[in-house]
Each structure stands twice: as structure tokens, then as C-alpha cells.
Amino acid sequence: MRLFKITLVGDGGVGKTAMVTQAYFSDFIEGYDLTVEDNCRKQLVVSDEPCLLELLDTPSQEEYTALREQWHRDSDAFMIVYSISSRSSFNKVKKWNDEILKAREKHPQKEIKELSQAGFEIWKSPPRILVGNKADREEIERDVSTQEGETLARELGIKFVETSAKSNEQTMEPIQQLVRQTRKWTEEIGQADIEAKAEASEPVEPLKGSSHHKIALALFKNFLEKIKPSNLSSADDAKAKRRHPLN
């Protein structure tokens, strides 16, 4: 069963931890405190295919930048989370997106270095989704409109969804979308890598003086002898005599 590692990034207080606890325990736990690099695993079915899910809730403080770079390198997909009631968290979305992309460019995994350039170009831009959380505060505290979220997501070239971890509204939707995107993304990397390496490869010619070269040369000379005009006419005469033995 395939494991999908999804990392949540965003400012502190936007509800990343609450989204993780809803996904794992189907419950909103007020004041629940995840430790640094705290993660669990959960089995689920997405598009009729079972998978194993690992969610990583990352701290937003500056002192954890180096650790986040490591997590960005090792993850399959990302949720960039902001609160619809916090304009400042929305304004930081591009910063979080850039941090992910720079980490992928700077610190590729060991096996990723063996990819072709075409495969690497796809790998370094992983599946991401923009999540506007705390939609339960719609009526009293909304500070970022749905349209603004959609516009920013289009600008970044990623999907967008609004959720409420507190009321468990749409909390699994971004996860399911990322699993589907990651499956497709993985196939695209593999296909691009195969095609690039196939284009780069050239047919190997036998070395002159080698036994393979001598055999190939002998076969070619024998073929030339068989197609000489004299041989062709002789062969035609023989066929004619077999067809008309009395002539």
C-alpha cells in the first residue's frame, strides 16, 4: 500500500493542527498541541484505491527553517493553509509556496538526482493546494474573500478549497485532492524520465576489429554476393527450368 506524505505549512494559529486531528481522529480538540515533526498514519480509500496517509504539522517559527527544508524535500504534497479571518496569514501564502519550491530545488533527495532533467523539473514542483481554513467564522470574522483565495491559487497554479476544522467542513477534501494529484504527478515524472532517457540514448555500433564487427562484415559481403545481377539471372533460369522441364 502506497504511503502519501503530506506536509501542512502556514502561519501559526491558522488551524493546521486542528486539521490534522480532524483527519486522524474525526474530532476537534481545543488546545491540542502537536510536538515538532509530530505525525501519525491513517489508512483511507481515495478513488476506490487504498492508501496510507501521513500528515506532518510543521511549526512556522523562523528557527525551524532548516527543519522545514528537510520536510519539504521528503514530502509528496503540501497544504498551504491560511485563516479566512487573518489577512496577514493570507499575505504570507506566497512566502510559504516559495519556501517549498526553493527547498526542492536546493535539496533534492539522493534518488531524485538520478532523474533526467525533464523528470526533475516535474519533481521540484510538487502537488500543492491552497486551503482557506476557519470557514465557520464566515459571518463574523471573514477578512479574506473566497474570490481572493481562488485568484491567488490560480496565480500559483494550484487548487483551492475552503475548510473548517472546527465544524469538520471539507477537511478531507484537500487531502483527497492531493492524493489524486500525487498519483498523477508520479506517473508524469516516470513518463518524462523514460522519454528523456530514450531520446538521449544512441544505437551502439560494433567496434572495428572486434569479432562482432567481423561477423557483421562477413554477413554483409555474403548478402552482396547473393544480390549480384549474374546470381539473380542464374537463379531466375533455375526457377524457369523447374517450372518448364520440357523446354
How would you explain this protein's 3D organization?
- There is one protein chain.
- The protein has 247 residues and is α/β, with parallel strands linked by helices.
- It folds into 2 domains: 198 residues, P-loop containing nucleotide triphosphate hydrolases (Rossmann fold); 33 residues.
- The chain has 10 helices and 6 strands; from the N terminus they run βαββαβαααβααβααα.
- Helix 2 crosses helix 4 and helix 5 packs antiparallel against helix 8.
- The C terminus is likely disordered.
Element layout with pairings:
Blueprint: E1 3-9, H1 16-25, E2 39-46, E3 49-57, H2 65-74, E4 77-83, H3 87-91, H4 93-106, H5 117-123, E5 128-133, H6 138-141, H7 146-156, E6 159-162, H8 173-200, H9 211-226, H10 229-243
Helix pairs in contact: 2-4, 5-8
What level of helicity do the residues show? 40-55%
The overall pLDDT, averaged over residues, is: 82
Kindly state the number of beta strands. 6
Structural class: alpha/beta
Number of domains: 2
How many helices? The count is 10
The CATH architecture term of the largest domain is 3-Layer(aba) Sandwich
Cα end-to-end separation: 78 Å
Q: Look at the structure and name the CATH superfamily of the largest domain.
A: P-loop containing nucleotide triphosphate hydrolases
Give the neighbour order of strands across the main sheet: 2-3-1-4-5-6
Write down the CATH class of the largest domain: Alpha Beta
Sequence stretches where pLDDT stays below 50 over 5 or more residues: 206-216, 243-247
The arrangement of helices and strands along the chain is EHEEHEHHHEHHEHHH
The Cα radius of gyration reads 31 Å
Shape: globular
As for the CATH topology of the largest domain, it is Rossmann fold
Q: Report the major sheet.
A: 6 strands, mixed
GO molecular function: GTP binding; GTPase activity
Protein name: Ras family protein
InterPro entries: P-loop_NTPase (IPR027417), Small_GTP-bd (IPR005225), Small_GTPase (IPR001806), Small_GTPase_Ras-type (IPR020849)
Keywords: GTP-binding, Nucleotide-binding
